[in-house]
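Support request, please re-run this one:
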Amino acid sequence: MKVLEKDLKHGRITLVPELLDDFWVLYNIIQRGDVAYARTARETRSGERYERPEKGRRISLVLGLKVEKVIWDRSLNRLRIHGIVCDAPEDIGALGSHHTFNITLNMPVTIIKERWLDYQLDQIERASSRGATPLIIMAID
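Re-run finished. Output below.
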């Protein structure tokens, strides 16, 4: 796992999972009530509330979620973070609605906690010191 930013004064750490084992670390670190930021796609629709909406368009943006549930999907090699949108651009009107992040390998995620526990910081430190295992390919003729 790569640590991009570590600001414990504000309770903010930005991580990039590089190995499948890093999902296990994130699964154990991210808890209900935390705030998570990641780049995601969200469909926006035009029209009034009670009329049939037109076909929406999908836009890519960074959202902040108040975490409700974290699911480690081992079969699809991803981490799913469910929550309520607490930070979003005003023009899409997503505040207060539910959303799910699908965190995959090499996708940055920022986690904000009121208080980081020592064992959580130790897990991040161990995961970041591991790094990817080098692969050697040799061709013999």
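The first strand starts at residue 2 and ends at 7. The chain has one domain: 2-130.
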